[in-house]
Amino acid sequence: xxxxxxxDTNVIFSYSNYNDQSKEIIKKCYLYVSNKKGRxxxxxxxLEELFEIIKKRARIHKEVISKIENRDYSFEDSILxxxxxIPFAKQLYEKxxxxxxxxxxxxxxxxxxxxxxxxxxxxxxxxxxxxxxxEQIDKELIKKIHDIIPNHADCGILASALKxxxxxxLFLFVTADGQDLNPKAYYFLKEHFEINYxxxxxxxxxxxxxxxxx
Amino acid sequence: MVEANERKTxxxxxxxxxxxxxxxxxxxxxxxxAISSNWSTVKTYVDDLINKEKVKEIYxxxxxxxxxxxxxxxxxxIPISDEERxxxxxxxxxxxQEYKKRKKFPTKTHLAKCAVHVIKNEDSGLSxxxxxxxxxxxxxxxxSDPSQDYQEETKFEHEIxxxxxxxxxxxxxxxxxxxxxxxxxxxxxxxxxYTLSDEFFKITNLSEWDDKEILEVxxxxxxxxxxxxxxxxxxxxxxxxxxxxxKLTIMNIPLQRYRKEILLTFDSLWKLIALYKFYKSKTxxxxxxxxxxxxxxxxxxxxxxxxxxxxxxxxxxxxTYLNNLANFDISKIKLSKEVxxxxxxxxxxxxxx
Lengths: 214, 353
Hints:
The complex is a heterodimer of chains A (214) and B (353). Chain A has 214 residues and is α/β, with parallel strands linked by helices.
């Protein structure tokens, strides 16, 4: 019997951005979701992060339009986007700077909307079970994970997966995170829990990191 | 504590309480201090003012009560000085008189916009009177009401100039409808967001909707939408609303089918944005109000309720979109070359901070 899949945000977001020209990992995410096997599970932390990412992307697009409208505008002065977003905003600006702001806004909106339709379609038609709303995430467990995994959003998602795994058959934790959740880091975290939180008897879902899948 | 009120009549004490509340709302201790009397004495008079609807209580939590003066004649009861009040009333009086001389009577909009026309002109000597941007454009902070029996309460230094300005307005705008003079004012002061909102309401007021035209206006609205660190939700919620409308068209759903939901949602969005514009116009410039005071005592509740209303209408509109999504084949969407290029650039972006 196929194992159920518990999704990390990046898989869904990558799936939503797929097209013929996409790089390998996005194709893998797209195929994984499209060729659905087993039940798909989504936790509140992922849902929240997805909405946050959707919001951030619109803010980047808005900044690109502002820069096209006013060439003197500096992304570094932006109150909307983070430092990590700036290189992407700059690349978009370079690509689109010779178009009219209205045309740029229209194309960027299309890009966002099509991705959102894919996400909302995924949420509506592919997800079998929504679990652990954000207010029910075990905050103590988040802290324990945070000792090893720096990203707070990842910690919330993992904490949800661990909480759910306690009462379930082994499921897959499906991610496309090549850094914090690479197999080595994941098994290190697992080992850390086995040593330091033996009594709590946490069971880790089986990692399925699509970055490292052939 | 000295009972300073012993020599004063109850009416005088109440007047002093109202004066103390002129600048901003106060708590019990602050009122007592302002009129040099203890709270048990002052409370009787405050309760009387509450009963007469001249003061209201604002609760912060269960026990913290702040007392706010009800002016009743300014937007959100924002305080203005008695001198400003007299000037506003006199200006409204003069405008009504000039309309009457021409056998006309101003509408509320004519009265407000004419007053702005005078105040904005430096030669009127009234440029310190507070004006704000709100739902229908630039208006006096004091509510203009043509049905009020305004009197000449003060003598203006530049009365002749003021009357000339009023007549100048009546000649140019007197015959025009309220909606028209609003639209013209938005253009005159270059407030693009207001102009685009006018345009949206105009084209959606037609019996047949042109979706392409609607999307074009909304696209411009997105570009003009303010981005503010203090109120990031103004931009975020605008994007949510516009995106739902755009997604309906991507799915080839005629927008007119959801006329009611779209209009209600845009109207709620506009009410929130207009309140934001109101807030900005009261917190920028030389007579700017303290931001915290303005938010805490005057417009904070309105922001909350408008945000809630907008979220409710968004839910309604979004449910129509989601219902259509159930029958939509997403593989039908064809990506343009530009969208593919944008995706290529963004494919390493994860959204992580």
